[in-house]
Design brief:
By secondary structure, this protein is of the alpha/beta class. The chain folds into 4 domains: 1-73, no CATH class; 81-129; 135-365, Nucleotidyltransferase, domain 5; 375-498, no CATH class. It is built from 18 helices and 7 strands.
């Protein structure tokens, strides 16, 4: 490998810190040794004090060596073996262990397998990463979020659903109530009560539940002057702050029910206790920050001017969104409800940061490590790799047969050279077959390629007539090998054509 090889650069990058620290220690020991020698101490005594061999200390005095990576570099494997390893890891996942790879590929060195596994894991991590935004809501009371969730046990023995409303800027829970169904008739009275008690927000976030996209719910929001920001279809993470808080609220509710001596019987007072705990005892802004209740209490009321400003900016951005999404060509009347929700989502994503209600930071999220494959899955992958190798061998055998059929009419000497070259230089699939043959319980029976080569070797080594010349003996051996090899393949091809 050259110094420009990426594997060499990777080794240098991994060991740079350790080798630099090692060189620094050597320089420091050499400085201490020079000071002791200047005080009249012999170099052998200095080496004993520093616990360094005298010869090593003498070499350091004549110049410290340059930084060099330790260990042998990984042996370069051919493309066929590397392709087999990556194919196997692609089907088992990045969490396969190095011991399992060594059992499947015993002919590849451990360091090489470790390097290939590290490269595959890095590639898998980058491939499955996704870009998103970290949202910071800046103004309390301006943006709320609502959602339905199901409790572990029916509330009061009859309510199977919970309706929750939360202010995103302060993390204050406005509603955590039991409802009988996920319908608009359950949502509208609760929202009107909250608007009358706490004031109306500027924007309400929700998913695409039937109660939230109902015509009567949208009409109520238009009458109250509240814009609705719907999540994309099948994207619950778009409203992730509320989705995550639902799990926390259920935990607090279960704790309240358990403290009352009825862990499997949740009641409405447990819901109220969970709200009090979440609003007064949690510190979402850090241990020195305010509680959600304190932040909510210090909010400023929303004036009509700010509401009008939002709707003016929203109307302007809706026109831009129509042009961006291509809805300006079909007209407002021809747009479906899903198209209107998509347009408003794009428009509000521009309006809220513009008016100072939202700060968006672009982030990249990497996936969590998947589970390690089971022994059953590894066995299935081994069997699939065996079938893949067998299929490649059959394809290569057919290609070699067709090539040999085209060379029957050439001279005997050139045909003999071709056969000897085939037998002397095994191809890549032959190497893969030899590697796979040493795996446990994979290739118990001999393959057709070994049978063909054994027949060819037997025919070549068969004694010739004493009257025949060497060239005639080679030609006779080649023709015998061709007859024994091609005849079964031709009959098999004819049978396949008949089918």
């Amino acid at each position: 490998m050259t110094a420009l090889d990426p594997r060499v650069r990777k080794r240098q990058r991994r060991q740079r810190a350790a080798r630099s620290a090692e060189r620094h220690r050597r320089v420091r020991l050499l400085e201490v040794g020079n000071q002791l020698h200047e005080q009249g101490m012999a170099w052998k005594e200095v080496a004993d004090i520093l616990q360094v061999a005298p010869r090593t200390l003498r070499d350091w005095r004549h110049g410290l060596p340059q930084l060099q990576c330790r260990g042998r570099p990984c042996r370069e494997v051919d493309a066929a073996e590397r392709s087999d390893v990556f194919w196997f890891m692609q089907r088992t996942g990045p969490m396969i262990g190095l011991a399992a790879l060594r059992a499947v590929f015993p002919n590849i060195p451990r360091a090489t397998l470790d390097d290939l596994l590290s490269r595959y894991r890095l590639w898998w991590r980058k491939k499955h990463a996704w870009d998103g935004f970290h949202l910071t809501w800046l103004v309390p009371g301006t943006v709320w979020a609502m959602d339905f969730t199901e409790p572990k046990f029916k509330i009061d023995g009859k309510f199977p659903y919970l309706f929750t409303v939360r202010d995103l800027a302060t993390h204050y829970h406005l509603c955590w109530r039991p409802v009988a169904s996920e319908k608009a008739k359950e949502v509208i009275p609760i929202l009107l009560e909250l608007f009358q008690c706490h004031g109306r927000p500027l924007v309400m976030k929700s998913d695409n539940g039937s109660a939230f996209i109902a015509e009567e719910t949208q009409a109520m929001f238009r009458e109250q002057g509240v814009a609705v920001l719907y999540s994309p279809p099948r994207k619950p993470q778009y409203n992730g702050a509320l989705e995550r808080s639902n799990t926390t609220m259920k935990s607090w509710t279960g704790i309240c029910a358990e403290s009352a001596g009825r862990p499997m019987n949740w009641r409405s007072e447990d819901l109220m206790g969970a709200m009090r705990i979440a609003n007064t005892l949690s510190y979402p802004f850090g241990p020195e920050g305010p509680t959600p209740e304190a932040s909510w209490r210090d909010r400023e009321p929303i004036s009509q001017e700010r509401r009008d400003e939002l709707w003016e900016a929203l109307a302007r951005e809706r026109m831009v969104a129509n042009e961006k999404l291509g809805f300006d060509q079909i007209g407002e009347e021809a747009m479906s409800n899903a198209d209107c929700r998509q347009r408003d989502r794009v428009a509000l994503s521009e309006v809220l940061p513009e008016l100072g209600y939202l700060h968006m930071t672009r982030v990249r999220r990497y996936p969590c490590a998947p589970k390690r494959p089971s022994a059953e899955k590894l066995a299935q992958t081994k069997a699939a790799m065996q079938e893949r190798a067998s299929a490649e061998d059959r394809v290569s055998e057919v290609a070699d047969t067709e090539e040999l059929e085209g060379t029957v009419d050439v001279s005997a000497e050139s045909t003999s050279n071709l056969v000897h070259q085939r037998c002397a230089e095994p191809s890549s699939f032959g190497k893969r077959r030899a590697c796979a043959h040493s795996r446990e319980n994979l290739l118990a029976t001999s393959n057709e390629l070994d049978t063909m080569q054994a027949q060819s070797d037997a025919s070549i080594e068969e004694p010739a007539s004493p009257r025949a010349s060497p060239s005639k003996r080679r030609a006779w051996a080649v023709l015998t090998w061709l007859r024994r090899t091609i005849t079964p393949l031709l009959s098999r091809r004819k049978a396949a054509e008949i089918k």
